[in-house]
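Q: Predict the assembly, please.
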Amino acid sequence: MALAVETQNRIGRGVEALAKGWAILGGTLLVALSVMTVVSIIGRALTGYGLGPVPGDYELVANGCAIAIFAFLPWCQLRRGHVTVDIFINRLSSRAVAVFGCLGDALVLVVSAVIAHQLYLGWGEKFPYGSDALRDALAMGYRPFFAETTYELQIPVWMPYTAALIGAVLMVIVAAYTVWRSLNWVIDGQEPQL
Amino acid sequence: MTGLALALSAFGCMLVGIFLRVPIALAMGLTGFFGSWYVIGVPTGALAQLKSLSYETFSNPGLAIVPLFLLMGQFATRTGMSAALFEAASDWLGHRKGGVAMASVGACAGFGAICGSSLATASTMGQVALPEMRARGYSDALSTGVLAAGGTLGILIPPSIILVIYAIMAEQNIVKMFMAALIPGVLAALGYIITVAIYVRVRPNSASTAPRIPYGRRLKTLKATWPVFVIFGLTMGGIIADWNWVRPGTQALFTPNEAAAFGAAATGLYGVLTGKLDWEGFKLTILQTAKATGMIFAILLGAEVLKGFLALTRAPDLLADWVTTQGFLPITVLLVMLLCYLIFGCVMDSLSMILLTVPIFLPIIEVLDFGMTAEETAIWFGILALIVVEVGLITPPVGMNLFIINGVARDIPMGQTYRGVTPFVLSDLVRVGILVAFPALTLWLVGIAF
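A: Predicted assembly structure:
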């Protein structure tokens, strides 16, 4: 007896593919940023020879890292990567352990939904487009007078925010799935090794 | 309720949550959120700060070094550098009694120089060195104990993720923190090697000896480790050296972020060029990095929310005031704090402990007079705290390194590992004593380099 194990597994494969794909994209971005930084260092070292550092390398790394980290979080949740203290719980039965794991996953779902919602509002404050009616309908808040941009390259901040938001939304989807998954573990009476 | 009482009860609730298996990041964040709500009276402020807090924490330029160093460590793990290090070390030391165990310590130290995480060091060296030691008839206790302890060198020898985070919290220069960690890191490796030497004298059955390896072969295997030396030399050397003596006025070669990016790119490139890193390996590297990074930044975000609440209660200042008016000896206060780390280290992970305690402990340490400048005190305390939280990684019942080594060889009972690691824990404690007694060991290199 469990809650639609077949469906859960099928959806699980889809969720895993999404989280994995987005995490790998984020990681590739991270690798690209390191290569860009190396190019920038070489350029700076050869300043006397007509080359120079990559403009805005510093802010590219900072904002790129934020995007990558948002992309990593869903994968981390899916693999139960977050640190928990199990030592006291482990004295209980394996079903009780699974119950607390499920409660943890449910909390993650609530918090990640709140964070994604607030990030959406923050994104709305930086996104200078859309008619008032449309913004109202999407609960995006007032349209900003200026598009906030980064310091050196003048990149509108809403762009990296959008990429981050995708990760945050994916995190909510993954969290919802993990609640379902751990609920089935509770019914099953134990958690498998991940 | 006074600020102090409020903070204390909030901490109590948080610990209960943590012990009930709530992810630590969540427990910290929720405590901070509800605490701020309680102090202000409405939740709007705490909610509104979340509009940008997550993005700003993750895009903090000072923290960009963390995913980059993690990526570098994962690349190094995938590209067989650990195996090369171990082979070279065991060729040089293997003929001594307990030599392969000493070689594991040396290889861990070498790997720690390109990897900023204890768990990664323990797991990769465990896979390389554990089968070798068992094949040569080393006892299960010694071989698992020495590897669990050796893994902690990953975090002590720079680069080190936790040092980076401590440096940001304590507003200290990362490069100075790395310099300060160097001598304690080498002392740690020496201490472990001496421990092995004593161990095999007390229990002669626990290790074997092997024939000497000729110098020609030793040099050959040593040469195979060049990528490690080159990458460590360029990343650490590049951020430490300012080339003023070559061209006056020039800056250091790299900023810390650039050094980490360079290290990641260089280890990755080495893997691609030697054919050890294919697309599958690349994906695995990324996913491992993703998991470790996600875990760390979730905790960082939770700590950020908690920090806002602590500031509202003014608890750290109040506590610092209270400690100074009581007139405790500074050294007593320090020892009590280190003891706290040791006790909590048995059940909690090191990053969470640093993030939870530093905002409270550091203001106290800073108002006490240790006969050093404020900066020196902060650096010294950071290194001491780092070492004692790392002891937590190898103390039962919840030593993460012990679990990792045990996961490599599931047939060895956990009790053997506990027994084997005990002498190394003692060696750690002796080292902490030495570093407390002689702050110069930590601060000497910092003074020379700056």
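Residues 279-313 of chain B form the longest helix (35 residues). Chain B touches chain A through 59 residues (CB under 8 Å).
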